[in-house]
Amino acid sequence: MVELDRCEINCIHDEAVKAVKEALFSEDIAISLAELFKALGDPTRVKILFSLMTRELCVCDLAAVIGASESAVSHQLKILRTLRLVKFRREGKIMFYSLDDDHIEKLFAQGLEHVTE
Amino acid sequence: MVELDRCEINCIHDEAVKAVKEALFSEDIAISLAELFKALGDPTRVKILFSLMTRELCVCDLAAVIGASESAVSHQLKILRTLRLVKFRREGKIMFYSLDDDHIEKLFAQGLEHVTE
DNA sequence: ATTATATATGAACATATGATCATATGAATA
DNA sequence: TATTCATATGATCATATGTTCATATATAAT
Question: Which helix (H) or strand (E) holds B94?
Fold first, then answer.
């Protein structure tokens, strides 16, 4: 608040701030977006999601593929489920997980472009 | 390790694990990808980046637009700079920040699709 | 019914993160 | 060159995060 006052007098470019503020999406959307990206922001979850891009897998297989404990994988799957990034179906004792939609593929493709360029 | 042994006997679908393991990218890439997404996984940084999609802005303007302290913005800009998500140019005392490439726009577009559907 | 198996969940712990405050830097101006 | 201003940085602290271990649940098999 105090800083805003000082700033308005000295440095702020008023029209720029006003214009950008109007274009800025809502707090809610910013938080949702951040939550989505945060879910993708962990190596274990990245590996889980990338593994599921090939085919559906059970928790045990996922753990073996990415080299993590089944408990750790299960915990991370819960986060991915909450954000509707993965879905699952039960077959007896086994839960098969798969990607919930194709957004992840596209996000990964974009992300890889940035990372590998 | 112990769990792997137990698992191999009981639950693992060997060919599936083998196939997916081969398709899986390297540990390094997984970590880089996670770092990129993690950088996008914070409301303050999301707002900064989205603001910069409209036009270049100085630290002071950014702080005013998103309603955060200039110090907080500066700290976050450092993270974004490290990951080559933003670039900057100096004009006297003022630093103007802008997006470093167009990947962020595409990532945001994809992310918004998921979040708002 | 009892046991085994696949997965889920809760508690605990170490580490990471983001904001704030104080201070430092670097450029313009008096 | 002394001061002011815009930004950067370091320290600190409260909170969040991810793993592990122990335990619970749900299904299948005996």
Answer: strand B94-99
